[in-house]
Amino acid sequence: MRRIAIVEDEPAIRANYAEALRRHGYEVATYATRLDALAAFRTRLPDLALVDIGLGDDVDGGFTLTRELRALSATVPIIFLSARDSDFDVVAGLRLGADDYLTKDASLPHLAARIAALFRRSELLSAPPASDDIVERGSLRLDVKRLTADWQGKRVDLTLTEFWMVHALARHPGHVKDRDALMRDANIVVDDSTITSHVKRIRRKFMALDPAFERIETVYGMGYRWTE
Amino acid sequence: MKIPRVALSIRAQLLLVLTVFLALPWLGVEYVRELERVLRDAQERTLAGTAQAVATALHNRTRLFATPPDPIASFARERAEERSPSGVSLPPSASPEIAQIIEGLSRTTARIWVIDRSGTVLARAGSLLSETNGATASDSTWAKVSGATIGRLYKIVLEQPVEDFSDDAATQGAPRGRDVEGALAGILTTDRRPTSDGKATIVSAAHPVWVGDEVRGVVIVEETGNAVLAQRNRAFERLFNIVLAVLLVGSLALTAYATWLSARIRRLRDDAERAIDDDGRVRAPLASSGAGDEIGDLSRSFGSVLARLSEYASYQEKMASRLSHELRTPIAVVRSSLDNLKASALPAEARVYMARAQEGLTRLTQILTRMTEAARLEQSLSDVERVRFDLVPVVTGCVEGFCLAYPAARIAYSPPSGALLVDGSPDLIAQMLDKLVANAVEFAQGRPIDIVLSGDAQAACIAVGNEGPPLPEGMQGRLFESMVSVRADGARDAPHLGLGLYIVRVVAQFHGGEASAANKPDGSGVIVTVTLPLAR
Predict the structure, then answer these.
(1) pLDDT tens digit sequence for B266-306
(2) Residue spans per domain, chain A
(3) Do A86 and B379 touch (CB under 8 A)?
(4) What angle separates helix A192-209 from helix B348-380, to the nearest 10 degrees?
(5) Domain count, chain B
(6) A chain contacts of residue B434, beta-carbon cutoff 8 Å
(7) Cβ separation of A105 and B368 shorter than 8 Å?
């Protein structure tokens, strides 16, 4: 049975999330403070950690904890779950090695979908790829099962949300995906400017591998499309 | 009753106050008049004294007055007078002895007569005319300058001593004025009379000459009033020169002071006006003055008022994001609880409430998202990379998108013919247009919306007009503030926080432009205009 650690200072949210995830068949351990969580992680690593950034008086406790957890294990999937939604927090969180960043607006089904996807990814990373789950668009190669993206044969380190967005765009090249569609496909509920910053981050990750990358086009007033 | 307000600068007011000092010359005039009176009294007394002295010398000298005048001597003298080149024919002295006595007593500017009871002149000495008075002429430059300018003015205003008056005595013989009458009656009398041509005044004193108990003759001492007049004029001129100098220096000093004072106040005013922009936002804190006076105090209190205003404004701007942040956690509690509840088997009637609760929650989340949008936008501005892009395809693309997004709205769009290159972020422009059009659609309520993109050499202009209700007075400038909305309450299908146009302004300012809203001239609607400077 997969074991999920929830580090969250708000007891009601902690209990609700724990209950929902248990219903999905996971084993859940909850911690209210960074030190409690860290002590538990040292004895036994969870299979996935759900971390709030602000932990009581420890404003950036979640960031610290992530750094410490990453030091213990490079592979444990980490999802940030926070009331903060500024670009700064998102970027800082992802840079620390989190696999995804969610605001607390996310509904429980959305959260469960993400957790399932992340588990699938870590599970299948070692297995050989099955051809039917591969989307290939020129230099882009998406493995839908493992949730990995490759550009010109090189791995693009996308978060779950980013992968889903790229997938939504690349599946139907030339078609404009508006922001609502992107949100639906990425299992998130955010506002338009957050979509804009997500797309910006995706472009930057591709451009880090290929400075000439220009496949994601902004169609002002409508949305985005994948061009070939 | 309302007193009409007259706009007077501090300088003008101080100069007005300065007119009080114009009373100084009046005081001076009064003083000089008093002085003149005293001088005249003194002159009369001196003349009386002289007359008395002469008379004393002649008292009881019976012989001098007993002898009838010598007709031959008199005749000889008259002949001599006729030949006199001066042409002044004064009655001759009939009595050489008396003439001898009074010669020694005569003064330069006084004339002494001795007459007998019948009015016959027994002796005469001295002249009314003074010698040319060179002592007053000063050689200093100042005196010359003032003599040329102010001096001329004084000559016009003040009565000047005149030397070429007509001397009555020359034609009418010995004076026979009130003083002589008095003296003949035995009393020392003084008199003052104008010359027949009125050019000068003659002051005279007559003293009886006693022989025994009988008045046998009269001593008359005459003098013109010119000496007093000249002295009065000198006093006048001196006084006026000083008063003028004081007034001049005083007004210059006061004007300079007033200029300095009003310059400080003007600077304070300008600073205060500059500190707040057209939208009422505090641009920069006021540099408070270090001066210890009231204006310094005023500047400091202005500074603190502005600082507080600025604090309040930033509090207002941050309130939205703080509030949303604080609300997120309890909403997450509600949402996760509802999600859990939904997962369990619910009776049919509970599902209805469940749906309502979720709907409310969705709206609440929407509000929160909007509340943070502006704050997030402002935070992200520092990382936004500026690129040079053509505004036309961006706006055109957005408008096409709006036509799809708002099928019910009638949107008319007129793009310019050329390209409009702008430095900035096309994403932000799209976000701004989104707010502009959403705002217009809402106010137009089905009536047409016109979007005009135009540009000149310096700037591009995006004007979004709608035919909705006009803006209330005084709201034009405030519309772009955070959390200011002019929508009527009630009948809302979406939450309004007054952040849309605030975002418009933030984006416009990021591009170095500005946003404004105005009613259409014919009152048929509202136009929101954003001007953006073009790339150079």
Answers:
(1) 888 888 888 877 666 677 777 777 777 888 888 888 888 88
(2) 3-124, 131-226
(3) yes
(4) 60
(5) 3
(6) 192, 221
(7) yes
Any idea which residue has 């509030």 for tokens? B323
Non-local (6+) Cβ contacts of B529 within 8 A are B461, B462, B463, B464, B515, B516, B517, B518
Helix residue spans in B406-453 (DSSP H): 426-444
Residue B219 backbone phi and psi in degrees, to 5: -100, 125
Asked if the Cβ–Cβ distance from B369 to A190 is below 8 Å, we say yes
pLDDT digits (tens, 9 = 90+) for B180-238: 888 888 888 888 888 777 778 888 888 888 887 888 888 888 888 888 888 888 888 88
| CA distances to A71, A134, A149, A155 from A141, in Å | 30, 7, 6, 9
Residue B399: list chain A partners with CB under 8 A. 221
Q: How far apart are CA B183 and CA B117, in angstroms?
A: 10
Please give the residue range of the domain that contains residue B26. 12-127+141-246
DSSP states of B74-120 as a string? HHHHHHHHHH-TT---PPPPS-HHHHHHHHTT--SSEEEEEEETT--
* CATH 1.10.10.10 for the A131-226 domain, yes or no: yes
Q: What tokens does B64 get?
A: 């001098």
CATH topology (fold) of A3-124: Rossmann fold (3.40.50)
Shared domain for B374 and B428, answered yes or no, is no
What is the model's pTM? 0.57
Interface A–B counts its CB contacts (< 8 A) at: 106
Q: Does the distance separating the beta carbons of B431 and A16 come in below 8 Å?
A: no
pLDDT of residue B462: 92
Residue A211 Rama label (left phi>0; alpha psi -120 to 50; beta): alpha
Residue in chain A lying closest to B337 (CA):
A16
Looking at the structure, do residues B204 and B237 belong to the same domain, yes or no?
A: yes
Question: In Å, how far are A201, B264, B295 from B267, measured between CA atoms?
Answer: 49, 5, 11
Q: How far apart are CA A144 and CA A170, in angstroms?
A: 12
Cα–Cα dist A103/A178, whole Å:
21
**Domain of residue B177, CATH code:** 3.30.450.20
Give CA–CA dist B420/B534, Å, rounded.
Answer: 7
| Three-state secondary structure call for residue B509 | helix
- Say what angle helices B226-275 and B150-157 make with each other, to 10 degrees: 120
Distance CA(B399)–CA(B453), nearest Å, equals 11
Question: How many CB atoms sit inside 10 A of residue B471's CB?
Answer: 18
Whether A176 contacts A224, CB under 8 Å: yes
Structure tokens, B284: 């920069």
Task: Enumerate the residues of chain A whose CB falls inside 8 A of the CB of residue B372.
Answer: 85, 191
Polymer length of chain A: 228
Q: Do B369 and A17 touch (CB under 8 A)?
A: no
Strand partners, B64: none
Q: Among positive and negative, which fits the CA dihedral B344, B347, B348, B351?
A: negative
**One-letter amino acid of B87:** G
